[in-house]
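Why do we care about 3D structure at all? Because function follows from shape, and shape follows, mostly, from sequence. That is the central idea of this module. The next example makes it concrete: a single protein chain, its amino acid sequence, and then its structure expressed as tokens.
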Amino acid sequence: MDIRNWPLGKIMQLPDCCFGQRWPISISGETTAVAPVFDIAECALPEKTIIWELHGSTVAPSVDRANCILKVGDHLPANAAEFNAMEYLFGCMDLVTYGRSAVEIGTNASIHLSRLRYPVLATGQRFVGYFQTASASSLLVQVTLVVSSVPMEVPDCLVSGLARSL
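And the structure:
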């Protein structure tokens, strides 16, 4: 059954098996000074993307922390002003940061958020990271997303009840 014209809210009610293949997309940055470092994913996100998992980890010789902000964009920003003009990947949530809307990761630790099932209208953009440490010590931050696209078709037997309710 063709579900291209279904609203995203209805599609998100489908079972996980309808969403097809998932793949990881990763970015990383090593900060060695107070200046920010940017990284952009090598491949673009599908126009309508589902984020299933997020994994973030830090490695540092000291007990330092870093700011890590995730956004979507179509180019690697040259400076913080260009990065600030991009849209947040998760609303206004930052990862590994001092801010209030944050998920914080300690030094030499990791966080794994699974079963997110978070829809993003990425319009073919890539995910971009901003990494900055508060001191001159070196800190490596890596962030990986597990994503899939939104299905266009599903077997009739899986959606017969949902299709009648449209």
